[in-house]
Amino acid sequence: MSTDLVEFRQRAREWLAANAPAGGTGPGSVAEARAFMAKLYDAGFSGISWPAEWGGQGLGQAEQRVFDEEAGAYTLPTYYFSIGLGMCGPTVVDLGTDEQRRRWVRRLLRGEDIWCQLFSEPNAGSDVAALQTRAERAGDGWVVNGQKVWTSVAQHADLGLLLARTDVDAPKHKGLTMFVIDMHAPGVTVRPLKDMSGRSNFNEIFFDDVHVPDENRIGEVNDGWRCAVTTLLHERLSISGGVGGVAGGRGNPASFEALRATCDTADPVVRDALVELYVRERALELFNARLGQETRAGIFPGARGSAGKLLLAELTQFRADLATSLAGPAAVAWDPETEGAGGLAEALSVAPGLALGGGTNEIMRNIIGDRVLNLPPEPRADKNVPFKDLKVGTQQ
Ligand SMILES: Cc1cc2nc3c(=O)[nH]c(=O)nc-3n(C[C@H](O)[C@H](O)[C@H](O)COP(=O)(O)OP(=O)(O)OC[C@H]3O[C@@H](n4cnc5c(N)ncnc54)[C@H](O)[C@@H]3O)c2cc1C
After folding, report:
1. Which CATH class is domain 115-223?
2. How many percent of the chain have pLDDT more than 70?
3. Architecture of the domain delimited by 3-109
4. Hey, which of 118, 119, 126 would you mutate to test ligand 1's pocket, going by the most ligand atoms within 8 Å of its Cβ?
5. 164, CA 20 to 30 Å: which among 110, 249, 273, 279?
6. Does pLDDT of 253 surpass 50?
7. Burial (Cβ within 10 Å: 0-12, 13-18, ≥19) of residue 241
8. Is 281 annotated as catalytic?
9. Pocket-forming residues, ligand 1, beta carbon under 6 Å
10. What confidence category does residue 197 fall into, taking pLDDT thresholds of 50, 70 and 90?
11. DSSP state of 370
């Protein structure tokens, strides 16, 4: 490791020891999270590998990895920014105009704007190109009408990355356009949905005649599918290697380290299960390390990010099931006064969501088969049919 990286690690370690909230487990308040992001940015640890001209630190993936390793010992209050940092921001950096990058990137990295991703709809999840939210030209901008669902952190969001239909006469993948929408604009209604963790991690959103200026369009009109694929590639990489990844799972009460410390490791059945957990964690860690090395060498992982996302979803479910069966009744009943109590129930209740959000396990397998292994793709009878003639959503 070069001296610079050693120094960088030391600086990150000292800063985290002095500034990371002690014993943090949940997302904390939005105000605290914004304040933390501002401090993180000012210390030079937000957007470490993002281009300096748009507000990033202009360092490399190696520095980012060093920081992630050091930060793995803490639960940083960055949850509200995970969609922005993991997918919306990278999309703006990749596809936005210079003016858009100047407008949004630094604010995201400093915690001034929370972003959400507005792709999925009640009738368009796996088949997101079947979405029906419309954006129609109106004067110098657009008017948006429709509904989204499953939108993480939208109840706190300032901006949303929206995928909308702009041409119903074109086939479904060719009539979409991407926009950045002001979540505080008149006509945007956000309704939180409660999931089985008891919290509102996602929302349903309604757009009624929401005006979006044309300067908020990302990419060309009707080129939204290409933009969406960019976002989804970033999403899968950020899920498998990022905040929710193996590194971020160190504080997880269901991780190998945590279970080894608390279980009867003399029991051969327990040992066997722990070995399998260890192997799965290491496999994902090494897979991510390899993708990281390739990225540093200028090779974009592309669809292979789907393999990491699939591995993480399966690992998360496996360790939640294992931890629960090892803990027995203690996994589902606890003394609320005990520090960290309820952590296993939490791990168990969020695990299934990971097999859906960012694309389901089945869709990840389809992508790996089609774009990584070059197997024959799924037949697509609707490929050349105008969207308005398809029997999808409310058109059925
Ligand atoms: C925790 C969480 C957070 C999320 N956050 C966001 C967000 O912030 N923004 C956003 O836009 N979306 C978000 N989503 C939505 C997520 O992307 C969708 O749930 C996902 O794409 C699946 O869509 P669906 O729920 O409509 O299921 P469907 O697409 O209806 O799928 C139902 C079942 O059919 C299977 N299936 C569907 N098509 C195929 C196929 N071709 N081959 C094989 N099997 C198939 C699926 O695997 C699944 O098991 C989130 C979801 C979750 C769970």
Report:
1. mainly beta
2. 95
3. Orthogonal Bundle (1.10)
4. 126
5. 110
6. yes
7. buried
8. no
9. 83, 116-117, 119-120, 125-126, 150-152, 201-202, 353, 356-357, 359-360, 362-363, 366, 378
10. confident
11. I
